[in-house]
Amino acid sequence: MDTEEARRQLRHLTDRAEITDLLNRYLHSLDHGVLDEEWARAFHTEDVTAEMPVGTVHGRDAVLDRVRKGMALFDRTAHFGTNNVIEVDGDRATARGAQLSTHVLAGSTDDVFVSAGHAEAELVRTADGWRISATALRIVWTQGTPPRLPEEFAPAAAV
User: Fold this and answer.
1) Is the pLDDT of residue 95 over 60?
2) Beta strands in 53-128 (DSSP E)
């Protein structure tokens, strides 16, 4: 293997590691993080599109607002992401994986809602590192008591 090929492979592995770390930190932040503007900038491009079970939103501020309001429906959560398949093409990448989310409903001690689905992300390399430019979470099954959603969260609604 020549030096240029070794550099290319190292860059590819480094990109995949950075993307994996970003996706892991994102899920971890939902359970333990402060959801503020710094959080939104750390994970998303300004023009991000997020397709969620509670509607699709466009723009980093809209994603922050929707995630903040969504997470307020729960007292505690545990999000797990796994089986990511990451494809890197220069300064762009895609990631597809599985997500399992367990939620304890706000104001409850034992009402649990679990959802599982497929998470997809498009990512771009920025001056600050990899960021999510588009994401979609497609739920394939749920179990337990779903949260009572505000009208603005109607699944057919688009913001």
Assistant:
1) yes
2) 55-58, 74-89, 92-105, 112-126
End-to-end CA distance of the chain: 51
Residue 150 is predicted with a pLDDT of: 82
Residue pair 60/48 in contact by the 8 Å Cβ criterion: yes
The residue among 94, 120, 96, 115 whose CA lies nearest residue 15 is 94
Measured CA to CA, the distance from residue 42 to residue 34 in angstroms comes to 12
Query: Which run of H or of E encompasses 129?
Result: strand 129-144
pLDDT in tens, 43-58: 999 999 999 998 899 9
Contacts of 98 (CB under 8 A, 6+ apart): 81, 82, 83, 116, 117, 118, 119
| pTM across the whole model | 0.92
In order, the DSSP letters of 44-56 are: EEEEEEEEETTEE
